[in-house]
Amino acid sequence: MTVCESVPMLRPPGIVGARSRKEVTPVDWYLIVLRAVHILTAVFWVGSFYIFFFFVEPSVKELGPIGGQFMGHLAQKKKMPIVIAITAATTIVAGTLLYWRVSDGFNVDWITSATGVAFTVGALSAIVAFALGFVVVKPAIERMGAIGQGIATGTPPPEDQVAEMQRLGARLVLVGRIDLVLLTVAVIMMATARFL
Ligand code: HEM
User: How confident is the model at residue 137 (pLDDT cuts 50, 70, 90)?
Assistant: First the structure.
């Protein structure tokens, strides 16, 4: 049996997707549920990232103190950084289980195939993006949120807090750009890997 025949992910898309009436293979609910969870949480993660990077963050910067209050509400009341961190972590856990499954327990033939390389590059890009988000973005948003909540009480923010807000904003833009590239690579690789 060739690598292509033995590894389900390498079979032509028509054969992978289509289940003829005569086919007796039972429905693989484990894979179906895992894929649904993986794709749903990934859409939420990457979608919220794009909205934040292209719309929320620039608006917060342009609006000054009101932007700070809005950021405070998003972070403290709506728990946005935590919700995104949980969905991102779920994407990665489900993705790792899928990777284990479709690679037949990290089968080197699968990993070094074009499909395997593309899934691996996509997975690693997403994991690095998550790590950066967790280590840099989440604490920065939470800190900005805390400062923003202070502004919401009506007292004008002291100079050092304004400066800190600007520093955090600049850090978010830099890491945001890196994450933008990494997450876009992950999406493109995930979307195309099966057809390589
Ligand atoms: C930005 C994050 C991610 C996005 C947007 C994403 C998206 C997707 C999508 C849309 C699919 C379906 C592809 C298809 O059926 O052709 C998929 C499948 C897959 N993903 Fe991800 N993914 C992400 C992160 C990850 C991570 C971190 C891993 C591993 C650690 C991973 C492993 C996999 C595997 C192995 C499959 C194939 C599953 C199968 O065909 O049954 N993904 N992903």
Answer: confident
